[in-house]
Design brief:
Blueprint: E1 40-46, E2 57-62, E3 68-70, E4 74-80, E5 83-88, E6 92-94, E7 99-103, H1 106-113, E8 119-120, E9 125-126, E10 135-142, E11 150-155, E12 184-185, E13 234-245, H2 249-258, E14 263-268, H3 274-285, E15 289-295, H4 304-316, E16 321-325, E17 344-347, E18 351-355, E19 375-383, H5 386-399, E20 407-409, E21 442-455, H6 465-471, E22 477-482, H7 502-513, E23 516-522, H8 534-543, E24 549-554, E25 558-561, E26 564-570, E27 573-579, H9 585-589, E28 593-599, H10 601-616, E29 637-642, E30 654-658, E31 665-666, E32 670-673, E33 685-688, E34 694-695, E35 700-704, H11 707-714, E36 720-721, E37 733-739, E38 748-755, E39 760-767, E40 786-789, H12 799-802, E41 803-806
Parallel strand pairs: 7-8, 14-15, 15-16, 19-25, 22-23, 23-24, 35-36
Antiparallel strand pairs: 1-2, 1-12, 2-7, 3-6, 4-5, 4-10, 5-9, 10-11, 13-19, 13-21, 14-17, 16-20, 17-18, 18-19, 21-28, 22-26, 26-27, 27-28, 29-30, 29-40, 30-35, 31-34, 32-33, 32-38, 33-37, 38-39, 40-41
Helix pairs in contact: 2-3, 3-4, 6-7
Length: about 800
């Protein structure tokens, strides 16, 4: 595992005077005077440890502008069952603004927090404390005073002197956030000067876990987090380059990596782009230290492609390699973040890559763009602002600190994360031709003002994009393009009234004040049945019938909207916010995320042009006279077919079905196969969809021959399979007396969807194949290319017109 430095600092919230005009006014939080009778606060309590009581701890913070010396006249008193116990402190000096963790067991604390405690209970005089999981209280006392210096009451704890109102409750969400492992942590003054001043009203509202404050509160905190150190965004200035994905994202990142001469440190949710992986291996072989910090349990699992990339980098240079952040319950190891979801790279401490896209083939396709491409809609930037680079360096060093047990290195053998199976061949084909490239990259030199925001620390802070949206009014504009924007947070069964998404709240409020608000959300990854779906949010926003608020679902570049972008124009000022921050509560409060907010009219204009082009494509069009007889098909369509997969031919074949109608359809009434009449010929067959099978309105399902082969090729499982190779994938049911299997002929065949009465619902034929009333597709279909319907709803019964060859299949999605 690669080593990193341990940085211990008080809160970082410095803002250069020249940049303060960019942001809304900040209140100045003054430091406590040195002679204040209450110079030390209880600033954190870890009361519900993952190792029983062993990793329990309490943190004290000096909130004055001068050192404070603790000695045996100071004591901690905590509830223990029906009584209490007292622990006297030993002499220890706290510098101004600094803190001391006092732990029950030094080894257990280090295992969970990744740092050593300042003091341990056994060093102190008196009886060891224990903090009740269900609730209790702790007081900080000084002998010369009868009242507590500070107090905290939590859970079911009883009222105590020094505390006002109801006890503090840990922030929990059913099936999402539990109390176990949480740290109760004190909030800081918004935009505070250094050292950041803690809030102290002797109430629950002082703490980040407090449910009554939805932005800087109503959140958990966990061991290893640095809410204090990174409480405020990092502000700076510099140059920036922007590239739309999939148009030019790969090229921008490739060029940045090629510039490296000393080091590349990269942190991302996933990394599976073979071309970029090979480039990093080449840079490592040339003497560049290359380190990748990746999520060890991404959605769908760690791919063999990622393992292959790490093997190439590791083999190229002994100083280079991959490390994964993961959980392991058996060893009481819990990942610090729900997902390591940021996507950034530091290059020679001089340039930074940042954006919405993982370093993968969908967000950064490496194909020749001259004939089009296919991929996620997103944004990737490079920037050189020193202040932002420094904060990103601090974030990477903290996340990759080898003292944390949630990190596991890649290795050749005998470890959790190793190479792919022997003989593995990486997938190098990316992109496609469905999407015509529209946006060249934009390079902006100079000293543009910008800020770096992160989750879980400060995306919801007082100097972020949400506060800019709060300023938008008549004549202003707010544009949002987002992968995931649920209407409400909290449990899935909640609602926008009880647990509103504060981002959506502010968009609605801006529109009510008179700002023009447009929202474009992804439809490719969305599930309309989910109460927190994008479809539900679009329905909510449009249902308000505000004249200047419009929302839509879209898929402008073929593989979904993966962007996380907000554009705000307030008066004559233009702001662009891009990065990895989704609209979910997890993204704001549990994930590691990173975004940049830049003020630039040119950057705003570039991204606005992309947004408006995408948004307009979702709106109804007045068709010219030549199209006035076009009708949306009112039946299921075969939308894509894999006829000639490379390697084991039959096992890699699949068929995709699309429902263009505005209502779901019961698939159990249909059969799918390559025989139009009953026959027992080998390689011919017809299979029923299983009972209860349905396809949603506008939905897509995929039937594969072999679910295992399909998973290895595309990183996801099909909806149905023929061969019964995966117990989790429903099996198609063979029609008795109608063949024994399906084998699609490369030189000609047909695929048909039959109704229960044997009538043809839909048929696709190619080359030597034939079907009544259908004209075959006449071009040769190369290995691993699919036969794709284009446009998706076109159905003239002429396959030569309705279909095209797609070099990179869009399996499971309508381009």
């Amino acid at each position: 595992m690669f080593k990193t430095s341990v940085r211990v600092a008080c809160a970082v919230a410095c803002v250069a005077a020249s940049l303060r005009g960019l942001w809304p006014h900040r209140a100045t939080a003054g430091a406590w005077p040195a002679d204040d009778p209450l110079p030390v606060l209880i600033s954190a309590l870890h009361y519900f440890g993952r190792e029983g009581t062993a990793d329990e701890a309490v943190r004290l913070t000096n909130v004055t502008s001068a050192p404070v010396t603790l000695d045996p006249s100071w004591s901690l008193i905590a509830a223990f069952g029906a009584g209490s116990r007292t622990l006297r402190l030993i002499t220890h000096t706290l510098s101004a603004g600094h803190s001391a963790w006092i732990a029950r067991d030094a080894a257990a604390f280090q295992r969970q927090f990744g740092i050593s405690p300042t003091l341990v209970f056994t060093q102190l005089t008196g009886t060891s404390l224990s903090f009740a999981n269900g609730g209790g209280w702790v007081r900080l006392m000084r002998d010369s005073q009868s009242d507590p210096v500070d107090a905290l009451v939590y859970g079911v704890g009883a009222a105590q002197a020094g505390w006002l109102g109801a006890p503090l409750q840990p922030y929990t969400v059913t099936h999402l956030i539990s109390a176990e492992g949480q740290v109760l942590e004190r909030r800081l003054q918004a935009g505070a000067t250094q050292p950041a001043a803690p809030i102290d009203t002797d109430t629950a509202a002082d703490w980040v876990n407090y449910r009554g404050e939805s932005l800087t509160g109503a959140r958990p905190s966990y061991p290893g987090w640095k809410l204090t150190e990174f409480s405020a965004a990092a502000h700076g200035s510099g140059s920036i380059a922007l590239a739309a994905a999939p148009d030019a994202s790969y090229e921008l990142v490739r060029d940045a990596f090629q510039r490296a001469v000393r080091s590349i440190d990269l942190e991302s949710f996933t990394f599976d782009n073979a071309a970029l992986g090979q480039l990093l291996a080449e840079r490592a072989a040339a003497g560049v230290r290359v380190r990748l910090l990746l999520d060890g349990a991404p959605v769908g699992g760690l791919s063999d492609q990622t393992r292959w990339i790490c093997a190439q980098i590791n083999a190229a240079d002994a100083k280079s390699g991959c490390v994964f952040m993961r959980s392991r319950a058996a060893d009481k190891i819990s990942s610090r973040y729900r997902f390591l979801h940021a996507k950034f790279a530091l290059i020679d401490e001089a340039l930074m890559v940042l954006g919405s896209e993982n370093f993968g083939s969908r967000g950064m396709p490496a194909d020749d763009k001259s004939d089009g491409t296919l991929g996620h809609r997103g944004v990737v930037v490079t920037l050189d602002a020193p202040q932002l680079l420094q904060r990103a360096r601090e974030i990477f060093d903290a996340d990759a600190d080898a003292q944390h047990r949630d990190l596991a290195p890649w290795c050749m053998a005998g470890c959790e994360y190793g190479p792919p199976p022997a003989g593995y061949q990486p997938i190098t084909l990316t992109g496609g031709i469905s999407y015509a490239v529209r946006h060249a990259p934009l390079h902006l030199e100079g000293t543009l003002s910008m800020a770096l925001h992160t989750s879980p620390e400060n995306h919801l802070g007082a100097d972020g994009v949400l506060q800019l949206i709060e300023q938008a009014g008549p004549g202003d504009e707010v544009l949002v393009q987002q992968l995931d924007e649920p209407a409400h947070w909290g449990a899935a069964a909640s609602n926008p009234e009880d647990n509103p998404n504060p981002r959506v709240q502010r968009l609605i409020a801006a529109a009510q004040r008179g700002a023009a608000v447009r929202v474009l959300l992804d439809e490719a990854y969305d599930s309309a049945e989910d109460p927190r779906s994008n479809a539900a949010t679009v329905g909510l926003l449009n249902g308000l019938r505000l004249p200047n608020l419009r929302a839509a679902l879209g898929n402008p570049s073929g593989l979904g909207i993966h962007n996380k972008m907000m554009l705000v124009r307030v008066g004559a000022r233009h702001f662009s916010h891009v990065g990895s921050w989704n609209g979910s509560q997890i993204s704001a409060k549990l994930n590691r995320e990173m975004s940049v907010l830049v003020e630039s009219e040119a950057a705003h204009a570039y991204l606005r042009a992309m947004f408006m082009s995408d948004f307009q494509r979702t709106q109804p069009l007045m068709l010219p006279l030549v199209m006035n007889r076009f009708e949306q098909p009112n039946h299921l369509l075969i939308s894509e077919v894999m006829i000639n997969p490379a390697g084991s031919d039959v096992q890699g074949e699949w068929v995709e079905i699309f429902n263009p109608q505005a209502w779901p359809v019961a698939l159990s009434d249909y059969r799918l196969g390559d025989a139009l009449t009953r026959t027992n010929a080998p390689g011919e067959g017809m299979f029923w969809f299983p009972p209860g099978a349905t396809i949603a309105a506008g939905g897509v399902v995929v039937m594969a021959m072999d679910a295992r082969s399909f998973l290895s090729r595309y990183g996801r499982k099909p909806d149905y399979e023929i061969g019964g190779y995966d117990a989790e994938v429903p099996d198609m049911l063979p029609e008795v007396g109608w063949g024994s299997g399906i084998s699609l002929g490369n030189d000609g065949d047909e695929v048909a969807l039959l109704r229960s009465d044997d009538t043809i619902e839909e048929v696709v034929t190619w080359l030597k194949g034939s079907a009544p009333g259908a004209i075959p597709f006449a071009q040769v279909i190369l290995p691993d290319s699919s036969l794709q319907r284009w446009p998706p709803s076109s159905d003239t019964d002429n396959c030569a017109v309705d279909f095209r060859v797609q070099r990179v299949p869009s399996v499971g999605a309508i381009p």
